[in-house]
């Protein structure tokens, strides 16, 4: 009895001592450490299997990298079995069960771990683990081991952004207790060619089939490449679902929208994923809906106003259409709303003014019309506003740019009008203002205001006039100033801009300004500019201050009066970083200068340069645009230029004196989109390697001495839209070739002024359709009429034209010509065509110019031609036509010369009345005569590749180099554009 009592007292004391140990943290010789030895050993071995490398982790929340890493990389460094830290339950990132002492949680996220996890890893000995987080480390593209099944008690598994690769093992589906699974990774890893995670065998359906307790599922960036399984709609506990950038396709299950607990849904960046939004007849807890970068269609249902918990609605880069329901104004908890790059129409709802918590609003690149609603002035929390790229009209609301939290405002590429007046009174947070590409008028005036934070100001491409306001020079922190393409005038001194000490990008091109630059002394120090645009600034020489601008990436000195040779110092270290250099339309002389090796875009067209193309041009391996047009350059082309063939997109050598053949080594494919060799002295056959230029859209060989048969093999180029072989020495029959050809996208074909013969080659156009040509681009065109050149600065983007004139084509014009629907210009003149004018020409309802002159056509002019209501030019002269000229509509506008030289024609506008046989007949036309006289309507094609303000090349063809919205490229270069969707993933 006494012994039992003593034993009881002894055990009670041990229990009290153990409790005291837990409280004061002192060791006791009578008890074991709380952490189990085998688990402590497993953790240490796991630590020892990795290298601690600071570059292996980063802060996902954007905190100071250095401070964050110095703290997080010490996490496992504190693990030791020595001293008072021997208890693994006290180690950083380790969580133990208080009752059993087993390790149940391990959080080593962003711990700078570098190495691999293999099947023998000691990690899998921690069988009591419930929560495992290894996110934001670098596991060197190792596979997720199948042994993950040994951690059967896991409820939370996070292996995100840690460079795992390979197939996700099916064993994860055996972790039936999982409520949170995050295997997301960087979307860009597959695009960059690095190994990445895949979920194909097993499929997404197989993975989640047994995970019925899931509340969070994030597989963003995993290559799934399948449809979205309906089984996801059965996960009734799901609150978070993110499948961004997974290669999903097919129709999105509508049932997923109806999950009663779902708070976050993101499928961003799955271009093949289609679907539509249901009627939201329920309120639900949905807080974030991100369908950006998919292919959803349809209209936004008015019932979306029922989603009262939404704080984030991202629908940009889709195919949504229709007007915006005013019920979106009911979503008063919205913080971020983006509907950009869809097909929305109509007015902007005034109800947007109810979204008082909104801080990010993107509505760009739609077709919105009407005024900017004044109610947007109520959005006092707004810090980002982008309504660019629409058709908005009217003035800019006065108080809009005075919103107290607004940081960035983009209203560019609309039709906004009225005088531009900044009347700000209070200090603002504005950092960026972009009002470019509108119709704003008047002088630029800045009222009493304090824009101390302003970094970016773009007022380019408007109708602003007057002098540059001196108030601009008060924006002391300004980094970017674009005032190009306006009607600003007067004299401006470069020294005034230099006073803005932070200014690194300045473009005042395309105005009526005269820029004064003073000679700088050797000791003068200027800020380092990255962008300088001084086109049309009355400069007569290269500004001396450029000598020390060694950080320039963009320099535009085009359309000035700079004469003489390019100074040697331009090619020293001062311009070593140049990527875009435009010296077009000056009076430069001497030999062709060689730009820096880093150059991407070089335009020195419209000068007076002479000599050959130096072989040193072959070192420009990054070149994407080369424009040497309109000079006096001569000689043959160096064969070594194939070195830059892989990157070159635009090659324009027109209007020089180059001769010889085209080196075949140039044309190995690559990225060539535009080739213009017109108006030179090139000879020989066309190189067959042109057929490998599968990206080619424009081939202009006009006015050379090329020989041979028609190059039917060009018909296999899938993107070719413009083919101009005018005025060469091509010959032979245009009969059916032995191999089939397609020309699937051809819309401009000019083979005039050659020696082609046979029947009209309409088979070239048998794939012709009335196409929309969504990727069509604008260009300039020269049309000559009896020696009078008419130059059209910008022909409509969808121009469709055919010119078979001045050849030796014979036979009748087939009725099938009426199938060329959409054609706007048709020239068959100066041939030996016979028979009637086909009535099917009346089907070409878009036709604007028709020339059938100087042939042997007979019969009457079809009445159906009066249906061509767009016809502005008609020439049927010098044929054998007879009968009355059709009357009414466009025919009442044509002059006598349109019909002269036909012996039997009568009626207006001819003086011969129908039924009057006393008038002497006109002389009949013969083939030789038609060849000598020449048509009053001849097409003279001129593709201007690099034109005024970089022409059409700068967007459609080059994209990231110099795009149509020039300032976009510059802003990206200077890293001051908004974040892209790839950086906003959830």
Give an account of the 3D structure.
This protein has 986 residues and is mainly beta. Among the domains are: 32-140, Leucine-rich repeat, LRR (right-handed beta-alpha superhelix), CATH 3.80.10.10; 403-516, Leucine-rich repeat, LRR (right-handed beta-alpha superhelix). It has 9 helices and 66 strands. It has a 32-stranded mixed β-sheet, with no helix packed on it. Strands 13-15-17-19-21-23-25-27-29-31-33-35 form a 12-stranded parallel β-sheet. It has a 12-stranded parallel β-sheet with strand order 42-44-46-48-50-52-54-58-60-62-64-65, with no helix packed on it. Mean pLDDT is 83; it is low at 17-32, 61-70, 770-796 and 917-986.
Question: What descriptors fit this protein?
Answer:
single chain; 986 residues; mainly beta; Leucine-rich repeat, LRR (right-handed beta-alpha superhelix); 9 helices; 66 strands; 25% strand; globular; disordered C terminus
Short description:
With 986 residues, the protein is mainly beta. The protein has nine helices and 66 strands.
Distance between the termini: 70 Å
Catalogue the unreliable spans. 17-32, 61-70, 770-796, 917-986
Biggest sheet overview: 32 strands, mixed
**Can you identify the CATH superfamily of the domain at 403-516?**
Ribonuclease Inhibitor
Counting H and I runs of at least 4 residues, what is the number of helices? 9
Rg computed from alpha carbons, rounded to a whole number of angstroms: 36 Å
DSSP E strands, number: 66
CATH architecture of the domain at 403-516: Alpha-Beta Horseshoe
Overall mean confidence score, pLDDT: 83
User: Rough shape?
Assistant: globular
Strand content: 15-25%
User: What is CATH's topology name of the domain at 403-516?
Assistant: Leucine-rich repeat, LRR (right-handed beta-alpha superhelix)
Pairing-aware structural class of the strands and helices?
A: mainly beta
CATH class of the domain at 403-516: Alpha Beta
The amount of helix comes to under 10%
């Amino acid at each position: 009895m006494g012994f039992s009592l003593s034993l009881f007292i002894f055990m009670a004391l041990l229990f009290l001592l153990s409790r005291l140990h837990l409280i004061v943290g002192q060791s006791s010789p009578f008890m074991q450490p709380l952490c189990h030895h085998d688990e402590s050993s497993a953790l240490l071995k796991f630590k020892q299997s990795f290298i601690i490398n600071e570059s292996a982790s980063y802060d996902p929340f954007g905190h100071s990298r250095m401070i964050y890493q110095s703290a997080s990389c010490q996490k496992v460094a504190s693990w030791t079995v020595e001293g008072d830290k021997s208890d693994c339950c006290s180690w950083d990132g380790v969580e133990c069960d208080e009752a059993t002492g087993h390790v149940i949680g391990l959080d080593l996220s962003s711990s700078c771990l570098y190495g691999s996890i293999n099947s023998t890893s000691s990690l899998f000995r921690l069988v009591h683990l419930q929560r495992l987080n290894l996110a934001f480390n670098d596991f060197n593209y190792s596979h997720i081991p199948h042994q993950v099944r040994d951690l059967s008690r896991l409820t939370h598994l996070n292996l995100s952004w840690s460079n795992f690769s390979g197939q996700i093992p099916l064993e994860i589906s055996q972790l039936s207790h999982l409520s949170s699974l995050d295997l997301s990774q960087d979307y860009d890893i597959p695009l960059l060619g690095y190994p990445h995670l895949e979920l194909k065998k097993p499929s997404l359906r197989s993975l989640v089939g047994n995970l019925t307790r899931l509340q969070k599922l994030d597989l963003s960036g995993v290559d799934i490449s399948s449809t979205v399984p309906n089984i996801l709609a059965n996960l009734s506990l799901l609150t978070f679902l993110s499948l961004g950038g997974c290669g999903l396709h097919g129709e999105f299950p509508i049932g997923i929208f109806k999950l009663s607990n779902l708070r976050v849904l993101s499928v961003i960046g799955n271009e093949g994923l289609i679907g539509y939004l249901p009627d939201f007849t329920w309120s639900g807890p949905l807080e974030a809906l991100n369908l950006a970068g998919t292919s959803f269609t349809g209209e936004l249902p008015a019932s979306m106003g029922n989603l009262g918990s939404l704080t984030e609605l991202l629908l940009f880069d889709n195919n949504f259409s229709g007007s915006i329901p005013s019920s979106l104004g009911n979503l008063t908890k919205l913080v971020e709303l983006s509907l950009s790059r869809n097909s929305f129409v109509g007015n902007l709802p005034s109800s947007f003014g109810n979204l008082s918590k909104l801080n990010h609003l993107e509505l760009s690149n739609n077709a919105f019309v009407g005024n900017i609603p004044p109610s947007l002035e109520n959005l006092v929390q707004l810090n980002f506003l982008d309504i660019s790229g629409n058709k908005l009209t009217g003035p800019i609301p006065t108080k809009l740019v005075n919103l107290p939290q607004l940081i960035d405002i983009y209203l560019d590429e609309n039709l906004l009008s009225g005088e531009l007046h900044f009347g700000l009174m209070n200090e603002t947070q504005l950092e960026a203002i972009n009002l470019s590409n509108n119709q704003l008028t008047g002088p630029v005036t800045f009222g009493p205001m304090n824009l101390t934070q302003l970094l970016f100001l773009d007022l380019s491409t408007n109708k602003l006039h007057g002098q540059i306001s001196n108030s601009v020079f008060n924006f002391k922190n300004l980094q970017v100033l674009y005032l190009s393409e306006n009607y600003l005038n007067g004299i401006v001194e470069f020294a005034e801009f230099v006073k803005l000490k932070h200014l690194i990008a300045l473009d005042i091109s395309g105005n009526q300004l005269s820029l004064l630059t003073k000679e700088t002394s050797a000791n003068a120090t200027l800020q380092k500019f990255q962008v300088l645009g001084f086109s049309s600034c009355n400069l007569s020489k290269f500004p001396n201050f450029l000598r020390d601008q060694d950080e320039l990436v963009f320099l535009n000195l085009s359309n000035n009066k700079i004469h003489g040779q390019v100074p040697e110092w331009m090619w020293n270290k001062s311009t070593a970083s140049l990527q875009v250099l435009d010296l077009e339309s000056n009076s430069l002389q001497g030999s062709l200068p060689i730009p820096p090796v880093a150059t991407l875009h070089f335009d020195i067209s419209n000068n007076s340069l002479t000599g050959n193309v130096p072989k040193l041009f072959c070192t420009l391996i990054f070149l994407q645009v080369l424009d040497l047009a309109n000079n006096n350059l001569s000689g043959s082309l160096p064969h070594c230029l194939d070195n830059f063939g892989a990157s070159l997109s635009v090659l324009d050598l027109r209007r020089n004196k180059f001769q010889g053949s085209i080196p075949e080594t140039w044309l190995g494919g690559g990225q060539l989109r535009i080739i213009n060799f017109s108006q030179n002295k090139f000879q020989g056959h066309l190189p067959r390697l042109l057929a490998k230029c599968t990206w080619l859209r424009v081939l202009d060989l006009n006015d050379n001495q090329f020989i041979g048969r028609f190059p039917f093999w060009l018909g296999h180029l899938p993107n070719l839209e413009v083919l101009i072989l005018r005025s060469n020495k091509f010959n032979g029959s245009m009969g059916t070739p032995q191999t089939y050809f397609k020309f699937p996208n051809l819309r401009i074909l000019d083979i005039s002024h050659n020696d082609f013969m046979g029947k009209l080659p309409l088979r070239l156009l048998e794939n012709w359709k009335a196409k929309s040509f969504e990727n069509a681009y604008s260009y300039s065109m020269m049309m000559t009429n009896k020696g009078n050149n008419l130059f059209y600065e910008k022909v409509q983007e969808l121009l469709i034209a055919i010119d078979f004139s001045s050849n030796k084509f014979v036979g009748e014009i087939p009725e099938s010509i009426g199938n060329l629907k959409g054609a706007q210009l048709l020239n068959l003149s100066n041939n030996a065509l016979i028979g009637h004018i086909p009535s099917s020409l009346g089907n070409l309802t878009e036709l604007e110019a028709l020339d059938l002159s100087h042939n042997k056509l007979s019969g009457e002019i079809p009445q159906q031609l009066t249906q061509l209501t767009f016809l502005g030019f008609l020439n049927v002269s010098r044929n054998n036509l007879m009968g009355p000229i059709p009357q009414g509509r466009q025919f009442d506008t044509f002059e006598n010369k349109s019909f002269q030289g036909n012996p039997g024609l009568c009626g207006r506008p001819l003086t011969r009345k129908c039924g009057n046989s006393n008038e002497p007949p006109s002389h009949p036309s013969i083939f030789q005569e038609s060849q000598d006289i020449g048509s009053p309507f001849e097409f003279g094609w001129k593709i201007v590749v690099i034109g005024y303000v970089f022409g059409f090349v700068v967007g459609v063809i080059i994209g990231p180099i110099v795009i149509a919205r020039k300032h976009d490229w510059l802003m990206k270069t200077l890293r001051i554009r908004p974040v892209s969707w790839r950086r906003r993933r959830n």
